[in-house]
Specification:
Elements (H helix, E strand, L loop, with lengths): L4 H10 L1 E5 H19 L5 E6 L3 H8 L7 E8 L11 E4 L9 E9 L3 H12 L4 E10 L13 E6 L4 E2 L14 E4 L4
Helix pairs in contact: 2-3
Bound molecules: 1-O-pyrophosphono-5-O-phosphono-alpha-D-ribofuranose and guanine (GUN).
Catalytic activity: IMP + diphosphate = hypoxanthine + 5-phospho-alpha-D-ribose 1-diphosphate; GMP + diphosphate = guanine + 5-phospho-alpha-D-ribose 1-diphosphate
GO molecular function: guanine phosphoribosyltransferase activity; hypoxanthine phosphoribosyltransferase activity; magnesium ion binding
Protein name: Hypoxanthine-guanine phosphoribosyltransferase
Length: 185
Amino acid sequence: MSVDLDHIQQVLDEADCLYNEQQIEEAIKSMGSAITEQLSNSNPLVYCVMNGGMVITGKLLTHLQFPLEASYVHATRYRDQLTGGRLDWRVRPSQDMKGRTVLIVDDILDEGHTLDAIVDFCKEQGAEQVMTAVLVDKLHNRKARPDLKADFYGLEIEDRYIFGYGLDYQGYWRNANGIFALKGH
Ligand SMILES: O=P(O)(O)OC[C@H]1O[C@H](OP(=O)(O)OP(=O)(O)O)[C@H](O)[C@@H]1O
Ligand SMILES: Nc1nc2[nH]cnc2c(=O)[nH]1
């Protein structure tokens, strides 16, 4: 299927910027401090959840100045759609995580099914402690569990479809230098 790049450009042009680069970078730095305080002596395995986690994980890692191992998992629930479906594992964690502290890093906690499934998988693999960090927590009452929160999060957003800083619109604009809400959603 060919992509209408004029449409893709128009989506960014018409979107509302909810957070700009400076606000996001400050939030990431604060997350880095909070994570450092809690995990700096735990030799954690840090997993980026691809694809959305690629920007936040790369930026967050530079604020974590202590020994850790970084790797990735790939799971998707939305593909290029605006609403989520079944979790589709593309790449599962490969390291031995028995007895380890694991930190899962993703772009967004929306309904939370994605993070919940990855956390459950790591616990089944014998991780001693599994913690979660997301750039954005979306505020609504459709969470997979009541009061579901990430252990660390940077920003809260209203209940709209967003893109930028790793989050996509139809596979595009993960590179957008801010967090934008889609017009009309
Ligand atoms: O909290 P949830 O409702 O489960 O949604 C959050 C997940 O949705 C997005 O991934 P997506 O499945 O779109 O794949 P992507 O990372 O490749 O964009 C996002 O990156 C999170 O992993
Ligand atoms: N791009 C994007 N992906 C998501 N996955 C879950 N919620 C969202 C969202 O608001 N935007």
